[in-house]
Design goal:
By secondary structure, the protein is of the alpha/beta class. The protein is built from 5 helices and 5 strands. Helix 3 runs parallel beside helix 4.
């Protein structure tokens, strides 16, 4: 499933990324507001769902080789965070859904959780 399809499932706005970026296919997804958990448990090429909107999220995504970030609950990062995501070429989606519902929609649509990927 592509990020474009995920965008549609979550009814999300694209904050960073173009059509080419949205063709990427995540291997899995994880939801967390603890960056230490993201570093410890996420898998390469995963999609992160989070309510954190600071630049450390972008740096964590880069270090963990994540394919994109979904800022849940209608949250919007500041311009510095969005600029950093653009420089690092990390697509950013922003649905109004809470994390639980966003994760549920993705899981129901066939996106595996990080614990299911080896």
């Amino acid at each position: 499933m592509t990020l474009q399809e995920i965008k549609d499932i979550l009814e999300a706005e694209v904050l960073v990324g173009g059509n080419k970026d949205l063709k990427a296919e995540p291997s899995s997804a994880c939801g967390s507001d603890l960056l230490s958990d993201v570093l410890a448990f996420s898998k390469e090429r995963s999609l992160l769902l989070t309510g954190l909107t600071n630049p450390q999220v972008i740096r964590t995504a880069e270090m963990s080789d994540l394919i994109g970030i979904v800022f849940v609950r209608g949250k919007r990062p500041d311009s510095a965070t969005l600029d950093l995501a653009g420089v690092k070429k990390i697509p950013i989606l922003a649905p109004r859904l809470p994390m639980y519902e966003a994760c549920g929609r993705l899981y129901r649509s066939g996106i595996r959780g990080c614990s299911e990927v080896k």
